Amino acid sequence: MRQVQDVRILDNINNTVRDDLRAEIKRGSRVSVAAACFSMYAYQELKKQLESVETFRFIFTSPTFVKEKAEKQKREFYIPRLSRETSLYGTEFEIKLRNEMTQRAIAKECADWIRRKARFKSNTTGENMTGFVTLDAGSAQTAYMPVAGFTTVDIGCERGNNTYNMVNCMEAPFSHQYMQLFDQLWNDREKMQDVTDVVIENISTAYAENSPEFIYFMTLYHVFSEFLDDISEDVLPNEATGFKRSKIWSMLYDFQRDAVLAIINKLEKYNGCILADSVGLGKTFTALAVVKYYENRNRSVLVLCPKKLAENWNTYKDNYVNNPIAADRLNYDVLFHTDLSRNGGMSNGLDLSRLNWGNYDLIVIDESHNFRNGIGTHSNTQENRYQKLMEKVIRAGVKTKVLMLSATPVNNRFVDLKNQLAIAYEGNSESLDERLNTAKGLEDIFKQAQKAFNAWSKLDQEQRSTDALLRTLDFDFFELLDSVSLARSRKHIEKYYDTNEIGKFPERLKPVSLRPCLTDLDDAINYDQIYDQLMQLSLCIYTPSHYIFPSRLQKYKDLTHNKDENLTQSGRERGIQRLMSINLLKRLESSVNSFQLTLKRIMELINGTIDAINRFEKYGSSDIALYEANGDDWDMDDENTEFFTVGKKVKIDLADMDWKSWRKELTQDVDVLERLTLMVADITPEHDSKLQELFRLLDEKMTHPINPGNKKALIFSAFADTAEYLYDHVSRYIKSKYGLDTAVITGSIDGRTTIKGFQATLNNVLTCFSPVSKDRDVLMPDSGTEIDVLIATDCISEGQNLQDCDYLVNYDIHWNPVRIIQRFGRIDRIGSKNKTIQLVNFWPDLTLDDYINLKSRVETRMKITVMAATGDDDLINPEEQGDLEYRKTQLRRLQEEVVDIEDMSDGISIMDLGLNEFRLDLLDYMKRNGDMDKKPRGLHAVVPATDELPEGVVFVLKNVNNSVNVDNRNRIHPFYMVYIRMDGKIICDYLNPKKLLDDVRLLCRGKTNPIPELYERFNRETDDGRSMTELSELLSKAINSIIDVKEESDIDSLFSAGGTSALMSQVSGLDDFELICFLVVK
């Protein structure tokens, strides 16, 4: 009887299964393995021996790579199976090997070997099988058990997470039983399914050349994977409503379509959304498509817009020939911002007293930034419109969704942003907190953001970059913005969308700044002299309540103070007084003519009042009607304030007033006004230097157009009077000298034009001024009518597309720099046919500092009179001080260049902050290409470098044991992206994932095939993936950079108020990061 050899025990520490197999496998051996998984790194360890075997058979002991009978198994079965399948490319304990980045070479050799020598089958049942290995080397038969998986851990090269890992090694005859067992399983057709082809196919993906786009989506897939879990189909627009077949949808550009889907997603999820695309990107159309979507679902929609945009919104819902989307039969209501403060009366065809405000499902607030800041010296006026909206519309009645279209989320105060958000979540921050997955509540997030912002704004100009701010803001803040806002800048659109179909933006020439003096008369006066006089006006005509005897005040309080208004009569009077004093300045800057008109109006008003007081003195009875504002005196923004719409008309009995003091002060004002009138009386149009300068400009434009044959010019003024004055003179000049037609639009009346018999409605005028962009052929099929010069107030400064024109003149500089950019946005639009466009600004004849200081002087002076009158200590508050500074820098920049609103501020723009478009990119990709969870990690693609993005590597890593992001600074934790140059210098570190994702998107988007000349070069340099040491070193540098940056920010946190993050996390090394994929930039 033969000596039975003992069973040997391999402890996998001193003697390992690997070493034993290396010794035992002889040429021609047959190896059979039954185990849970197969790793190509285990093959790598035994490569030499396995190359010499005759056959290699492998059974997966649980269903792996088998065809799924069910569509997709339940998650709890799916996850383990997934990890069995992905361990082909290395298990979680083989990260270190993967980080050597040689997987491509290994996968290639392994696949090649499988094709020649190996076969794989899988157990298809749920029955348990314990893993084992048998080896038939002819002369000796050996069996090893238990062997859980065929991985580097199981054969003893790595410890993994096993406390012990002992394996019994048995010789014949014990081993024969195992061999028979294996054969029996192998031949069991019921239980086994051959999966060799699937294994080869899977392993091949690890060495195939990948398209850059695939790597981009792979990155997104990992970074946003947890976000995918909670995307349900109803958050994505419901296609069944057919809104994609609508006329409006067919008219949108790609970037607008993306916006529509994103908005619907946000409205469904959070009930609110701010769309803050930059000027000239067609927000109105984007919003109309959203409206269409909700109307198709039988929801009722209300659009709230400033009065001046009513015509625009009305056009799209009415059955007019010039409504390009008439076929969609939209049916929303349009009301104005100011209607919220009214309790009755008709507005835009609706009877406000009977309107059921609470019954709207969706509200679109156009120009919502006008909404955020009620204007007034008192904080209590501020709430007005905003509260009304909350009370009447949003909290009342049905659940209301709110879409805000905002020109400029850019702001140096986060408060405004917060107020806009508050509209969306019904002012109840808890309701939003529940839906957001942020660590802190909304209020705290904003407090912290404001704190970070304040600290940032104190930095020196050089250090005060957007980047610096992004680093200090909290992750939650971005999370919040991402959830509820969508903002793209022009640069963004040009970068990420195919501008061939959209057309390019025109190139902006450097703005021309003109500073004509008031007049060319010899003994003429200048601005300063006029200002000195203006400072002496008290304008007490606007504040009669101030002179009521204290004992009689109550009587008037009850009369004037509407019960639910929070604006008192005296508050309103002071508001008008303050506006009027600033207004005189604005009107002087606009044109001498409109200044004269205002002086005349105020004088008539005062004289009428003095007459009444004199009559009273004589006959003893008289009452004074309070001042009612006249629209012509104001510019758009002022008209949009509450002072003019609220309250009943009240008469004050002079007997209740200290009329003597009032009369005295009124008389003083009259003297000043008469002096002023005389000072400017002799400035006639011939001597109006500014007007003459405009003629010169127009001559230049007509004789030397900046785009061949384009004679169009658009002239903006803040005031209707100035516009009318310009029209009277310019139209004659242009008609007689060039035979061209001019029109004026001021919003208060229909336009006027030099064309005989032309019906000058707003739409007709704009259509003939910009025939291409406004579809003249559709509206007036047989007409060739052209208007070449258009003079307008800000009633068309928003929401109109006049891109046929290439020349815009600001005849007066609006006090709000945003307005200037918005005006320019009429012609500075995507898809313009003009190559270049020109902006011309007229400035008052003084230095910018004087100009700004002057404004603040007037404002302060008015405030002081207010204080004296009310004991109210609301002098210029720091916020306004900040605003003045801000305006100053903006206006200064506008003299030099045309800025985008988002680039313009020292403030910060939502544009820099959102990650949402990446999520949408990914969803779209997955809809088309299915899931990516089986794809191996560590894949790469090679892309060409650009001017801005130099050669290097972008690594996408995953922090495996959560040891790094304690301070919550990385927005996409546990994922880390680092862009590193070939020499090891970091181009962009992990704290700026938005920029990195932007870069990767730019490098990869649209490159759907691998680029042969690049990858072939890369493969030669790395010997087909065998010698990856250079890249592997870069990888460890990248990982170290994460750890270093982290330590740096830890050290910062030692000195910051919020406590330290340094003590909370141990610093970790290479093995704590797994390489997800990488992009080689060549």
Sum this structure up briefly.
This protein has 1082 residues and is of the alpha/beta class. Helix content is 44%, strand content 13%.
Features of the shown structure:
31 strands; 41 helices; 8-stranded mixed β-sheet; 13% strand; 1082 residues; elongated; alpha/beta
Describe the structure.
The chain is an alpha/beta fold and 1082 residues long. The chain is 44% helix and 13% strand. It is built from 41 helices and 31 strands. The strands form 6 sheets. Strands 1-7-6-5-2-3-4-8 form an 8-stranded mixed β-sheet. Strands 17, 18, 21, 22, 23, 24, 25 and 26 form an 8-stranded mixed β-sheet that branches. Helix 26 (569-590) runs antiparallel to helix 27 and helix 26 (569-590) packs antiparallel against helix 35. The longest helix has 28 residues, at 592-619. It is elongated, with a radius of gyration of 37 Å. The two termini are 70 Å apart.
| Main sheet specs | 8 strands, mixed
Helix percent band:
40-55%
Total beta strands: 31
Strand content range: 5-15%
Strand order, largest beta sheet = 1-7-6-5-2-3-4-8
| Rg (CA only) | 37 Å
Span from first to last CA?
A: 70 Å
Uncertain spans: 70-75, 230-234, 373-383, 562-567, 864-882, 1053-1067
Give the CA-based shape.
elongated
Structural class: alpha/beta
Number of helices: 41
Could you report the average pLDDT, rounded to the nearest whole number? 78
